[in-house]
Amino acid sequence: xxxxxxxxxxxxxxxxxxxxxxxxxxxxxxxxxxxxxxxxxxxxxxxxxxxxxxxxxxxxxxxxxxxxxxxxxxxxxxxxxxxxxxxxxxxxxxxxxxxxxxxxxxxxxxxxxxxxxxxxxxxxxxxxxxxxxxxxxxxxxxxxxxxxxxxxxxxxxxxxxxxxxxxxxxxxxxxxxxxxxxxxxxxxxxxxxxxxxxxxxxxxxxxxxxxxxxxxxxxxxxxxxxxxxxxxxxxxxxxxxxxxxxxxxxxxxxxxxxxxxxxxxxxxxxxxxxxxxxxxx
Length: 281
Fold this sequence. Notes:
Elements: E1 21-22, E2 25-26, H1 30-46, H2 52-73, H3 81-93, E3 94-95, H4 101-116, E4 118-119, E5 122-123, H5 127-138, E6 144-145, H6 154-170, H7 174-195, H8 199-203, H9 209-218, H10 230-249, H11 255-279
Antiparallel strand pairs: 1-2, 3-6, 4-5
Helix pairs in contact: 1-3, 1-6, 1-9, 2-3, 2-4, 3-4, 3-5, 4-5, 5-11, 7-10, 10-11
C-alpha cells in the first residue's frame, strides 16, 4: 500500500510488503507462472479442463477488458498479470461443456468489477470470485464450478502445495493461506461431529484443484485483502472459513466462493473506514 502522508505509516504492514523480484523474476509474474503450472499439471494428469479453447477465450476476454477499461478509466496501459490470473482462473474453475459465451461473460464480469465496484480507489471483491459467483446466480442452468475433477490426488496436490507455499511465503502471504488451512481442518472436525460423517470425508475437498486456486490466489490477492494489519488479515480468513462452515452445514456446493463473496467486501469496507480514521481522512 502506498502512503502519501506520515500519518499512514503506523498502519502499513511492513511484513506484508511484496518483494519486487523473486528468484530473479519480477514478482508480478510469479503468480501467473504458478497458476499455469497448476493448469498444466492438472490437465496432463487428470484432464481437468473441458477445453483449452474455453480457457483461451476466458484469458483473451480478460486481457481485452483489462486493456480497454484501464485506458478508459485510468488512461494507461495496465500490467496484464492480474488479467491473466483472472482469465485462467475462470477457465479452470468454470464448468460449462461446449458453451463458450459463459467463459467470455464470466471473464468480462470479473475484470469489469475491478473498475466499477470501487471504494476510495480500491476494488473490494476478488475479480474471479465475483465473476464466478455472478454467473452461478445469473446462469445456473449453464454454469457449474470445478469440484473434484482433479480426483483429489494427494501426490499431485503435494507438489502444488510445496511449490505454492514457497512462493506465497516469499510474497509475504503465507500466513493467510496457513490460517485458512488450519481453520478448515478445525471447522471440519466440528462439522463431522454435527453431521456424523467421517472426519477425513470432511477434509477431503481441500485436496482438490479448486481449493488450490482458492487458497493460493483468491484469498491471498494483495488487491482485495485487508491492509490494516497482519492480525486483521488472519481474522478475516478465519471468518471466511467460518462462514464456509455454515454454508457447508446447509449443503451449499459452492460454499467457499460464497463465503469469500460475502466476507471479503465487508472486511474491505471496514478496512477502508479504519484506515481513513487512522489517517484523519
